[in-house]
Write a structure and sequence with these properties.
The structure holds 2 protein chains of 2 kinds. By secondary structure, chain A is mainly α. Chain A has helices at 2-12, 15-20, 25-30, 37-46, 48-63, 65-68, 72-76, 82-114, 122-147, 153-171, 203-225, 235-248, 261-264, 285-302, 348-356, 372-390, 410-421, 425-441, 447-452; strands spanning 199-201, 257-259, 266-268, 275-278, 309-312, 315-316, 321-322, 330-333. Chain A folds into 2 domains: 2-260, no CATH class; 265-452, no CATH class. The termini of chain A are far apart. Chain B has helices spanning 2-10, 13-33, 40-52, 61-66, 71-91, 103-123, 131-141, 155-160, 169-189. Chain B has one domain (2-189). Chain B is globular, with a radius of gyration of 17 Å. In chain B, helix 2 packs antiparallel against helix 3, helix 3 (40-52) runs antiparallel to helix 5 (71-91) and helix 3 packs parallel to helix 6 (103-123). The chains are: A mainly alpha, B mainly alpha. At the A-B interface, helix 3, helix 5 and helix 10 of A face helix 2, helix 3 and helix 7 of B.
Amino acid sequence: MTSRIVRIEIRRSAARWAGLLSLPLLLFAFGDLGRGSGVLATGHRQTLVLFVPLALGVGAWQARRDRRSRMEELLITTPRPAWHRHTVTAAALVAGVVVGAWLVYALLTGYITAIGAFTSFTGVAVFGVSTLFLVAAVLLGLAVGRLAPWVVTPPLLTLGGFVLMILPEAVLPVESEAHPLPGTRLLIPAETGGVSRFETLTGSALAAQATWAAGLAVAALVLALASGYRRLAAAAPVAVSLAVAASLLPAQARDAVVLDPSAIAAVCTDDAPRICVTAVQRPALADLRDPARDALRILASKLPQAPTSVSEAVLDTRAGQYLTPDRATVLYADLPTTARTGRIAVPAEDLLFGLLIGAGTPPCPFAFDLPRAQRAAYDTARVVAALWLLDRPPSSVPRDPYWWWWLPDDAALTAAYDALLARPADEQRARVAALRAAEVTCVAGDRLATLLGTGE
Amino acid sequence: MRPLRLYLRSRRVPVALATTVTTVAGLAWLNRVTDHTPALPLLAVLVGAALTGPGLAGDDIELDRTAAWRWPLWRTVHIGAAGVAVVAVVTAPAVVGASVAPLGQVLRDAVGLVGLVALTAATLGAQHAWIPPVTWSLLALTVLPRLWPPGEPTLSERVLTWMVQPAGPAPTTTAVTLGVVGAIAYAARGPRR
């Protein structure tokens, strides 16, 4: 009997609209699906900025149904308690939200599988917590709509919810070295703690968020169903879940983020020399293989100490080093990939050029703190080394503004390149080898001076 | 004056106006303390436009229609006055030095969004009038721009996300089209029964 009533309610309430709530995720995620299902889950979390206000609006809209159809007085006369009816409505809305969200998730996961990109179960937990926040939002909308059954409530609640969702970003300080974000920041529904495609939230952080979302949902349910002073009981789940969540969260938000082992698992070529990418970037391996082997061959033929394998450059910011940390024998490949398909986005020759920048080394950590002019000189030295290895003139550097925006200008490159070529052939080789050696050990120093021999 | 007063009261205009003024004042204050959050000016106009919606129909549409009034004229004046009121309320904080947005932008957003509210009232009913402008604007503020690659917006992007675009012919044309079509549809057909 009850299930039949719920089924009817699903058909005749705003549950259908609640089910469509997560549909705009298609717009958000379509560009990013080549980067795997972790990005899908965190993308949904960030898009709660949109989904939570819409869920509030749907809930408030549904709550006004009795008054809209001028049924309130009639329904008061029925012997059945009001919360019986309201429970069914709430159940229908929750079912709509949950089923709709997971249908969209399943659809997009299907697409990710179809293009051969990375799928994992770690995203499921993140998405599950997002769904809980959506459930809490739609129930909260229902509660507010019931407490204030006015015609202006749904639009005001939707817009007010949106303001509340964008407000933390505008008001709270941004993360910096001196001011790390507090862990409690993760209580904001749309906050992901800066999770990259290689990372996920720790189990305890997810548990804290789930507790907080569940507490909100229960409180909203109490507000929506109870009447009179019993509504005050809604404060209890909020307080309890807040206390539990705060105790589960780490002191700093960055400690709630960990590398996702399934995402950074190496996917390698079977034959030597080994070319490896992370599982997230698996679609890029086919495009990377040949340019990467060309790069290894060029380095081996032109320099005394060359790397022997290629690995994707994934910087573990907490450890301060690259995964597979061996700058001397590993060539780290920064992969310019198309977000939609996960394939390499630049022509093979540009990718080869990118691999040889810095004579096959990633930039050293100290370079990120250099002043602008010194950073430009540092980049010039590294790019000229790549040009020398490729025997290409400075005019051949790619000028694609999306991937190569940071390249130094032609004048600086030409000057340094001509200065290097003015040296005897043996010295040119020694200079580039010296640059590579310095970049491998990351000793501080002026790399342009090392390359051109002007510093000594 | 008496018919006008009764008309305004029957359409709950005083409540809508008071709510709009309070909310916009709150948003203007937020805009000041948060150092100009980009979305707030649009949200202020959106509040005004959304709260215009319920007033576009009376309590009993059938009964209204039996009145020997020149309804198209009343509706035209109503929707025009609503647009003017939205612009006035949203630009009013400038008087006390807390300007929310440039007049041109408020004007464009108000024309487009109030027009969309009127169009929805004529096609789907006044109760639903707030839904398309609010949903469309929130989408445009969040996920809609991701349909297009980053960089210089294309014509289709300028049209489909007109309310968040900088001033230009394409967004303005879209807003004016919505405004004119909405006003004409509502004036001619009235709220959907």
